[in-house]
Amino acid sequence: MSKRSVADLKVGERATIQSFNNQLMSLKLLEMGCLPGAEVCLSGKAPLGDPICLNVSGYCLAMRKSEAATILIENVE
Predict the structure, then answer these.
(1) Is pTM beyond 0.85 here?
(2) What is the pLDDT of residues 19-46, one digit of tens each?
(3) Which Pfam families match (predicted)?
């Protein structure tokens, strides 16, 4: 099974951040509270699907789908 990313989440779906696949983007995401082990929930999408809105570390974070694709996740059981 291939790795899933935050960009693959459906609205309302929760997951745990595992790692990142882009070193430069990971620094920016870490500063915004996207830490490995943190739970994220996709709370909404723009009408055309980009950008998306995540709940992470107690706040709502909007990002492009291309940025979200760099955050690798595992499903919350």
Answers:
(1) yes
(2) 999 989 999 999 888 999 999 999 999 9
(3) FeoA
Q: Which listed CATH number (2.40.30.10, 1.10.10.10, 2.30.30.90, 3.30.390.50) goes with 4-75?
A: 2.30.30.90
What is the sign of the dihedral through the CA atoms of 50, 55, 61 and 65?
negative
Q: What is the chain's alpha carbon radius of gyration, rounded to the nearest angstrom?
A: 11
- For residue 52, give both structure tokens: 């998306």
Q: Give 1's DSSP letter.
A: -
Residue 69: burial class (beta carbons within 10 Å; 0-12, 13-18, 19+): middle
